[in-house]
Amino acid sequence: MYRTGDLARWSADGVLEYMGRADDQVKVRGFRIEPGEVEAAMMGCAGVVQAAVVAREDRPGDRRLVGYVVPAAGVVVDGASVRAMLAARLPEFMVPSVVMVLERLPLTPNGKLDRRALPAPEYAVAGSSRTAATPTEAWLAEVFAEVLGVDASRIGAEESFFDLGGHSLLAARLISRIRTGRAVELGIRTLFNTPTVAGLAALIDSGTGGAEVSGGRPVVGGRVRPERLPLSFAQRRMWFLRE
Questions:
Q1: Which residues touch 89 (CB under 8 Å, ≥6 apart)?
Q2: Do 43 and 126 contact (CB within 8 A), yes or no?
Q3: Whole-number Å distance between alpha carbons of 134 and 153
Q4: Start-end ranges of CATH 3.30.300.30 in the chain?
Q5: How far is residue 233's CA from residue 147's CA, in Å, rounded to a whole number?
Q6: What class has domain 135-213?
Q7: Using an 8 Å Cβ cutoff, are 8 and 21 in contact?
Q8: What is the pLDDT of residues 58-91, one digit of tens each?
Q9: Is the pTM of the predicted complex or chain greater than 0.85?
Q10: For residue 126, which of 61, 225, 231, 236 sits 20 to 30 Å off, Cα-Cα?
Q11: Residue 143 phi/psi, 5° resolution?
């Protein structure tokens, strides 16, 4: 047990009910994030007068930060540019997957931000980017679509995996799918440096630049889980405080 800041209560029948957080923290991909810190960084971007950040789970098991900004009157603000500025100022896990530009933020009757009324995110789609031109590019476009949960027709050969909504956990899934489908081992850094279908296809087809044919890995055998496990130091401390 840890002092995490989560709120809970015991019900009459002895069931522990989770009530939420004692603060505004959200947990995304294992990281606890203060939305206010991200909002403050967005407010520091030129032309932004209001900002909001929420954690959304539009697909089961895929929770992402989504940012919303309101530009000053007469000012044009591009969500992709705001996201690029945030990427230069914040750790990767604090950068929203997408930043949407709104005319105004929705409010409740009490004048507070109505987070439930914020629109669903719209991720980048293939615009001027060309379509897949080789069998490897076509296959990678299908894999991108599968991992990102979008239609393959939205994946352009020059579109960045991360601009389409990808993040570090999805990057690991993508690398796993490439390893399984093409017996090629790519590193995370390779994907960050070459995040497009065209770039990855060139690496796979040439066998250079960080793409190596996998010779197979030893299978790790299962282990029997002991009935009792020792407490961690933090758990022992909590037990001591409760006694």
A1: 41, 44
A2: no
A3: 15
A4: 24-117
A5: 38
A6: mainly alpha
A7: no
A8: 777 778 889 999 999 989 998 888 988 898 898 8
A9: no
A10: 61
A11: -70, -45
Reported as a single tens digit per residue, the pLDDT across 105-115 is 999 998 888 98
What pLDDT score was predicted for residue 214? 46
Q: What kind of architecture, by CATH, is found in domain 24-117?
A: 2-Layer Sandwich (3.30)
CA 218/CA 216 separation, integer angstroms: 7
- CA–CA dist 209, 220 (Å, integer): 29
Please answer whether residues 156 and 123 qualify as being in contact, where contact means their C-beta atoms are separated by less than 8 angstroms.
no
Give the model's confidence band at 102: pLDDT under 50 very low, under 70 low, under 90 confident, else very high.
very high
Three-state SS letters, the chain:
CCCCCEEEEECCCCCEEEEEECCCCEEECCEEECHHHHHHHHHCCCCEEEEEEEEEEEECCEEEEEEEEEECCCCCCCHHHHHHHHHHHCCHHHCCCEEEECCCCCECCCCCECHHHCCCCCCCCCCCCCCCCCHHHHHHHHHHHHHHCCCHHHCCCCCECCCCCCCHHHHHHHHHHHHHHHCEECCHHHHHHCCEHHHHHHHHHHCCCCCEECCCCCCCCCCCCCCCCCCCHHHHHHHHHHC
Within 10 Å of residue 137's Cβ, how many Cβ atoms?
A: 23
Rounded to 10 deg, the angle between the 35-43 and 79-89 helix axes is: 110
Q: Are 133 and 157 in contact (CB under 8 A)?
A: yes
166 neighbors 98 (Cβ within 8 angstroms): no
Tokens of 152: 């393959």
Q: CA–CA separation, 164 vs 159, rounded Å?
A: 7
Beta bridge partners of 212: 185
